[in-house]
Write a structure and sequence with these properties.
The complex is a heterodimer. Chain A is mainly alpha-helical. Helix content of chain A is 89%, strand content 0%. Chain A has six helices and no strands. Chain A is rod-shaped, with a radius of gyration of 42 Å. By secondary structure, chain B is mainly alpha-helical. Chain B is 77% helix and 0% strand. At the A-B interface, helix 4 and helix 6 of A face helix 4 and helix 6 of B.
Chain lengths: 270, 120
């Protein structure tokens, strides 16, 4: 009897375990199916997210390339300019190299970003370099300022030589009052041009991106106005110089005619 | 009673001689005036203006004026002097092209500045 009970229990156990195992397999299969469905939806979302991220990265990197291209042109403008002082050139080149390094570093961070949350502040940092607002105008203003100071110096040499020439005409007995008046006007224009242009370089060269809009905007606007007025003064000074030359040439030519006439009269008389 | 013929001839000769003397005397003052005029002209020619006032004789005054106007022959020499000084003046004036040749590039320099200003 006891043996029958044992055998029955074994038989029941042999039947029950596979049944339970089969039931468990059914549950697992159902869960995996649900999970697969969820994964498909998640992958599509991830793909869309990655596409959007890539598009934003591409646009950001293109924007950085454009800024780097502008900075390269500024470096060329400094290298090719014959008037800018070495000190000013060095300071501007330092600022430009720093900006290049900052933008290149930003580009690397953008490439490495994996989420929109990570990318967004990096993109917003690009305009912060203020290449167009600060770096470009300040570089050009420094170049023009130095060029105008050099131009004023050349005009001063021209005025000095004209002064010598006028004095020699005067010693020769010519009435050169008009030439002296023109020379005085010329020297006034040169002085005005130089005094307007000279301070601009130092006023703007220290401006940094964080100075935009204030005080950079006002300082750059004032610098531009001063340089334009300085240019007008130097042009006027050169005009005065040309008028002096024409005036002296007129005196000289008139004397030649008088001498020729006198010589002709003498020849006719003799 | 009739006079002898010889006496008559002598008287005629005397009358003729006296008449000749009178004619000579009458002509003498004219010769003296000519001498004076010559003297005045000589004085004026030597440069003395006082000679004009010393003799009121119209002929002397006319001669003086003529002498003054004749002086200008020295005037043509003045233009000659002026011409000479003008020649000297021309030589002292500097050659503008040579003196200012090093500033010929100023126009180009100012054009360059204008280009730079346009970039601002």
């Amino acid at each position: 009897m006891h043996r029958r009970i044992t055998i029955l229990a074994l038989v029941m156990a042999l039947v029950a375990v596979p049944t339970a195992a089969l039931a468990l397999d059914d549950d697992v299969t159902t869960t995996e199916t649900d999970r697969a469905s969820t994964d498909v939806a998640s992958d599509a979302e991830t793909d869309r997210h990655r596409d959007r991220l890539d598009r934003l990265k591409k646009r950001a990197l293109e924007a950085i390339d454009r800024q780097l291209e502008v900075l390269g042109k500024l470096l060329n403008a400094i290298d090719e300019n014959r008037f800018i002082t070495p000190g000013h050139a060095g300071r501007l080149q330092g600022d430009i190299h720093n900006a290049q390094a900052g933008l290149n570093n930003l580009a690397r961070q953008i490439e490495a970003a994996t989420t929109l949350e990570e990318l967004r502040p990096l993109i917003e940092a690009i305009p912060g370099f203020q290449i167009g607002h600060v770096m470009v105008p300040k570089t050009h203003q420094v170049i023009v300022s130095d060029a105008m100071v050099a131009g004023a110096g050349k005009l001063e040499q021209f005025a000095d030589r004209l002064e010598e020439v006028i004095a020699r005409f005067e010693e020769a007995g010519y009435d050169v009052d008009e030439a002296w008046r023109l020379l005085e006007a010329m020297e006034d224009h040169i002085a005005a041009g130089a005094s307007l242009a000279d301070p601009v370089a130092e006023n703007v060269i220290g401006l940094q991106p964080e100075d935009w809009p204030d005080p950079a905007q006002g300082i750059l606007a004032a610098g531009r106005a001063d340089l334009e007025e300085a240019g007008e003064n130097l042009r006027a000074a050169h005009g005065n110089g040309k008028d002096i030359v024409e005036f002296l040439r007129g005196l000289h030519d008139a004397t030649d005619v008088a001498t020729t006439d006198a010589a002709g009269s003498d020849a006719a008389g003799s | 009673m009739r006079r002898p013929a010889i006496t008559s001839n002598v008287s005629r000769q005397i009358v003729t001689a006296v008449a000749a003397c009178l004619v000579f005397i009458a002509c003498a003052p004219t010769t003296g005036t000519t001498d004076e005029t010559t003297s005045v002209v000589t004085e004026v020619g030597s440069g003395g203006k006082a000679a004009v006032g010393e003799d009121a004789n119209p002929s002397t005054s006319a001669t003086t004026d003529l002498t003054t106007e004749t002086t200008p022959p020295s005037e043509p020499e003045e233009p000659t002097t002026t011409t000479s000084s003008t020649t000297t003046t021309t030589a002292a004036v500097p050659d503008l092209d040579e003196e200012l040749s090093e500033f010929e590039d100023l126009e180009a320099l100012l054009d360059e500045l204008d280009d730079l200003l346009a970039d601002l």
